[in-house]
Amino acid sequence: MKKVVIVIGHRTKKQGAYSPYLGESEYSYMEKVAYYLQDIVDVYQRPNTLFVSETTRINQMVNTINKQKYDLVLSLHFNSFHDRKAHGATALHYITNSRTKQIANQFIKLVSESFSVKKRSLIPVTSTKERGGVFVIKTKADAVLLEPFFGSNLEDAIKFKNKHEEYANTIKALITKYCQ
């Protein structure tokens, strides 16, 4: 059996983007999604370590995850942008890893089918200096950062509002496909 872990994006003291349409932050939303996944995967939350940079926190998280010898690591987020017209699902993957590209494509397909959101292009990460780079490049397991919708877009957010369990079921389907 393959070993999978879910990482809740951000942390309790720095919760990521806030969606006025959901009435909650990335962390708050994805923590609820993770609740519905904990029966089939491990769940990891970034600690609120004092006097440590976010890059150091992410490196510490990656080191902790690498010691557990997972096969797949999925980081749960949602997107946000100042242009409220931006919408759709995307995922970040390491550019040279064909498995994570396949997982990311499958994720976008499943989310688009389940929630009728636009399929955006994948975001291939090439450097640890890029957004999500430390996570997707330094994690030894296949690692993908998932962004199913834009919390800054009313139409996207409404499709996911109070749909934590439904979104968790989409992630379960992704994990099932990966483990086959």
Question: Care to describe what's here?
Answer:
With 180 residues, the chain is of the alpha/beta class. It has one domain: Aminopeptidase. It is 39% helix and 18% strand. Helix 1 crosses helix 6 and helix 3 packs antiparallel against helix 6. The termini are close together. 41% of the residues are buried. The mean pLDDT is 96.
Secondary-structure topology with pairs:
Blueprint: E1 4-8, E2 18-19, E3 24-25, H1 26-35, E4 42-45, H2 54-67, E5 72-76, E6 90-94, H3 98-115, E7 123-125, H4 133-138, E8 142-147, H5 154-160, H6 164-179
Parallel strand pairs: 1-4, 1-5, 5-8, 6-7
Antiparallel strand pairs: 2-3, 6-8
Name some characteristics of this structure.
two-stranded antiparallel sheet, alpha/beta, Aminopeptidase, 6 helices, 180 residues
Mean pLDDT: 96
Compute the separation of the termini in Å: 9 Å
Compute the number of structural domains: 1
Structural class: alpha/beta
Beta content comes to 15-25%
Q: What fraction, in percent, of the residue positions are helical?
A: 25-40%
| CATH domain class name | Alpha Beta
- From the alpha carbons, calculate the radius of gyration and give it in angstroms: 15 Å
| The CATH homologous superfamily | Zn-dependent exopeptidases
How many beta-strand segments? Answer: 8
Annotated CATH topology = Aminopeptidase
Quickly count the helices: 6
Strand order of the largest sheet: 4-1-5-8-6-7
